[in-house]
Amino acid sequence: MIELTTPVRNIKGVGPRNHEALAKRGVYTVEDLLYHLPFRYEDRLHPKPLTELVAGEIASVIAEVRGSVLLRTRSMPLFELTVGHGLQTLKAMWFRGTYLKDRFKPGEMVALYGKVEASRSQAGRFKMVQPQFEILPAPPADPSQDKDPLNTMLEVGRIVPVYESLGGTTASGARLGSKWTRRVIWQVLEQLEQGPALPEVLPIAMLRRLGLPSRLKALREAHFPPAGTQMEALQDFRTAALQRLVFEELFYLELGLELKRKRLRDREGTAFTTDDNVRSAIKQVLPFKPTAAQKRVLGEIVEDMRKPSPMRRLLQGDVGSGKTIVALQAALIAIENGYQAALMAPTEIRATQHYLSARRLLARSPRQYHVTLLTGSLDAAHKRQARSRIFRGEAELVIGTQALIQEKVDFVNLGLVIVDEQHRFGVRQRFTLMKKPGSADPDVLVMTATPIPRTLALTIYGDLEVSVIDELPPGRTPIETRRTTLEKSEQVWQFVRRQVEQKRQAYIVYPLIEGTRDDQPELDFPVDAAPEPEPVKARKGGKKAAIPFPEEKQPKPELRSAAQMFDELRAGALHGLRLGLLHGRLASDEKEIVMQQFQRGEIDVLVSTTVIEVGVDVPNATVMVIEHAERFGLAQMHQLRGRVGRGAARSYCILMTGGKVSPEAELRLDAMVRSQNGFELAELDLQQRGPGEFFGTRQAGTPDLRVASLSRDRKMLEIAKSEARALANGYLQDITETEREIVRRQLKDTWQRRYGLVEA
Ligand code: ADP
Ligand code: MG
C-alpha cells in the first residue's frame, strides 16, 4: 500500500538508479511525484487531421510513418521523416538528426508536436521543423491478449500529459521521458484510489464554496484529464482540477504569511507619539511641499508607528519619487520620542549619500541632531568612536552599511530601522540582530526602488504592509528613450559630446568590466542570505518558462566592455572630454573617488558597469547610454534610466543594441521606449523571467512554487489570501476542529519542507 509520504524508491518501476535522479529534482515522495504536473497536454483523442493544418500554428498530429531518410546537406546531416494520413502527408525534419536514423519503422504511428510551416517545395503541403515526437504503441491484434494494456491506454485515444523529464535513464540507457512518468504516475494514482481515502488538506466547506474538487480527484484529472476536457482550459491552467492545486499551494503560502503577520501584531513594539512638537520637527526639515503621495505614505507610516506593535512596512516608489525624505521624517518621529533610528544602505556610496543629504536636511532645523556614519571602510579608530557614540546614545540617527549588523553595534534604544534595499536584498531578515534581548522590537521600514508587482508583494514581502509613492515630485521632465544599434554609435557619441558642451554629464553603461568577464554578480556586500541561482526550470503549464538571457551566462568575446570602451572612447570619439571609469572591481575608496568626481562635475562622462544602479544622485547628468541593451533585464534598465531625469533639464536614455536581439529582448526594449511606469515594466519583467529571477539574483524567501505561477494565477492568489486571512483570524464558520488540526499540520509541513523557512 502506498501513501503520499511513501518514498519514491518504494514505487514499482522506480529503481535505485532512478530514485537518485528523482532526488536531484527534489522528488522524494509519492506526493512530490504527483505534484510534478504535465507542462502541456496533447489531444490524442481528437488529433488535428493533416488536412486541417494551418501554417504558423502549433499543432499536435498523429500519423503513420511512411518513410525516412538521413540527408547529408553541406552544413549538417538532416533527418527527414514523412508521415501520412490517407493521401495527405507531412514532413518532419531534425537538424543533426543522425541519432534518429533507425528509430521510425514504416507503418508505426507517431505523435508529433510542433510549429506547422508551409512546405517550400510542395504547394499545399506542410512541414514541422524539430517537432517533439513520440512513437505510439501499436494496438494489439487481439486486445484480450494484450500483455501490457497500460501501453495503449496511456499513450493514445485520450488527452495525454507531457512531462518535463525527471532525469534518470531506463535500463537500456534511454532518458526517462514522458512515457515513463505517465506510467509511474498512473500506477501511483490507481493504488491511491484503491487505498484508504486520501486525507483532504483543505476544509470541505471552503472547497465547496470555491467549487473545487477533492485533492485526489484534482491530482487524477490534472494528470489524466477526462475525455471532453477543454484543451484550452488545460493549457491555461483553468480546469477545476488544476485550479484546486494552484489554490492549495497559494493558500498555504498565504496562510503562513498571515500567521506571521498575526504573530507580529502580538509582539511588543513602541507606541510613538506624534504631538505638536513632533509634527513641527518633521515639517521644519522639509525644503519643499510634499507631493500628495508623500503625504499619504507618511500618514500610513505614522499610523503604524503610533501602534504598540512593531511596524513592518515596505515603502515602494520609483527612483527619485522622494522616498528618502519620507523615511527621514519617520526617523525624526523616533528621535523626537527619544529613540535612536538607523538607516542601512546597500553600499558605501549610497550610505555616504544618505549621510550627506540627511545632514543637509537636518541642518534646516534649529535643533542639533546627531548623525553618525558607520561603514565597513572606516578605519578602526573611527569605527570605535562611532560605536561608542551609538552605545552611549549620543548618536540619534545612525547611517551605515551592513557594517551596522556585522560590527556588533549596540544601540541603547533603537526605535526605528530603515532599510534601503534599492534592489539588492537579503538585509531585511537580519535587522533583528540589532535588537537587544528583552527589549521591544524596533519598527522597520524597508525602502525599495524596484516596483514590485502586487503578486510578488503578496508573497516575497507578504509579511510587510505596503505603501506606494506613485507620483514624482513636480518639475521633472519625462525622459526621452530611444533605441539604436551599434552601427549608429558615432551619432550617439556626437550627441553625448553636444550634451557635454551644454555642461551636462552622461553615463555610458556596459554589461562587462573588461574582456569577457561578466560583471553581473558584482555586489558591494556579500549576499550570503541568497543561495546560488538555481537552474531555471520550466514553469508548468503557465507562461513560458523563465528562459532568461542564456547569452548572459556565456559572454561572447565580441561584447564591448567598460574598460575597453573607456580606452577607445577616450582616444577616439570622446577625445578631449573628461572620462571616468567605474566598476565593481575597483576598491571601494577608488569607486568613491570616481563617484565624487562625477558628482562634483569633474568628470563629464562616466563609463561604467551596472554598479551605478545602486543609487547616485547627480541631477546634472542628462544622458544614459546603455550598450548591449539586449542583455539587460527590464528592472535593471529601468533602474539605470532612473539615474537621469533627476534635474529640470530634458534627459535622454539611449538603448544601443549590438548583436542578436532575441524576441524577448525586443519586447523589453519596446516596453522601455513605450513606458516609464515602473510597475508596468515590473509586471512584464515578472512574466518574462519568473519570480525567482525577477531581482537579478535569486532571493532568499522567493517561494519556490511548484504548481502556481505568480504571473498566471494572480486572481487565485487574491482568493487564497482572503481565505487564508479568514481562517487565521477565525472568521471561517464551517470548519471542524479536525480540519483545523489538519490545516495546522499541513502548514507546518509545507513551510518547513517547501520553503525551508523555520518559523521565527
Ligand atoms: P528616492 O529616495 O525615492 O530615490 P529622493 O528622496 O532621493 O528619492 O528624492 C529625489 C530628489 O527629489 C531629491 O533631490 C529630493 O530632494 C527631491 N524631492 C523629493 N521630494 C520632493 C518634493 N515633494 N518636491 C520637490 N522635490 C522633491
Ligand atoms: Mg509602533
Question: How would you describe this structure to a colleague?
Answer:
The protein is of the alpha/beta class and 760 residues long. It has 24 helices and 21 strands. The strands form four sheets. The protein has a seven-stranded parallel beta sheet with strand order 11-12-10-13-14-9-15, with helices on both faces. It has a six-stranded parallel beta sheet with strand order 16-21-20-17-19-18, sandwiched between helices. Strands 2-3-4-6-5 form a five-stranded mixed barrel. Magnesium ion is lined by residues 269-272, 304-305, 307, 310-311, 443.
Keywords for this entry:
single chain; 760 residues; alpha/beta; OB fold (Dihydrolipoamide Acetyltransferase, E2P); Rossmann fold; 4 domains; 6-stranded parallel sheet; 24 helices; 21 strands; binds adenosine-5'-diphosphate
